[in-house]
Design goal:
about 40% helix, Hect, E3 ligase catalytic fold, about 150 residues, 5 helices, 5-stranded mixed beta sheet, two-stranded parallel ribbon, binds zinc ion, alpha/beta
Length: about 150
């Protein structure tokens, strides 16, 4: 019992210490980033902004976000190519299935791609984003099958 109490005190001490170190002010200018803010300010109100958008058939704006490890230049190219692929006839033929189902697209540094039909999040590895045909394949062979299950 004493041991448990001691452990609890140590844990609480750590939590208290952690809180003290967090009274930094946000020094960001501008207060919006393509990647999550790293200022650690307790007053931070920074927003993460998308690299681009896709507009689906239902009129929804689907944001395309860069993630950590992806360069700015690659993210810009990827965002353009993803939008081009979405508007390509190869993807448009599936639009009745896809429209309204994707909520967010994340450009990943890793080379995997996946679609979660419950959250609507489509993750695409940067290696897939250099070629529009590869991206139309992702809509046709990753997103559509997931929604048709
Ligand atoms: Zn910031
Ligand atoms: Zn900040």
């Amino acid at each position: 019992m004493k041991k448990i109490l001691m452990l609890l005190i140590i844990v609480l001490a750590f939590i208290a210490c952690d809180d003290k170190g967090k009274d930094d002010k946000c020094t960001c200018d501008p207060k919006e980033h393509y990647l999550p803010c790293t200022c650690n300010g307790t007053d931070c109100t920074c927003a993460v902004i998308p690299r681009g958008f896709i507009t689906d058939k239902a009129g929804n704006q689907i944001p395309i976000y860069q993630t950590v490890g992806v360069s700015d230049a690659d993210a810009i190219t990827a965002s353009t190519n993803i939008a081009t692929a979405y508007n390509d006839p190869a993807t448009k033929q599936h639009e009745n299935i896809i429209s309204g189902k994707i909520t967010k697209i994340l450009i990943l540094a890793e080379d995997e791609c996946s679609f979660d039909k419950n959250t609507g999040i489509l993750e695409i590895g940067i290696d897939w984003c250099t070629n529009v045909d590869d991206l139309t394949d992702i809509f046709a062979y990753v997103v559509v099958p997931a929604l048709s299950e």
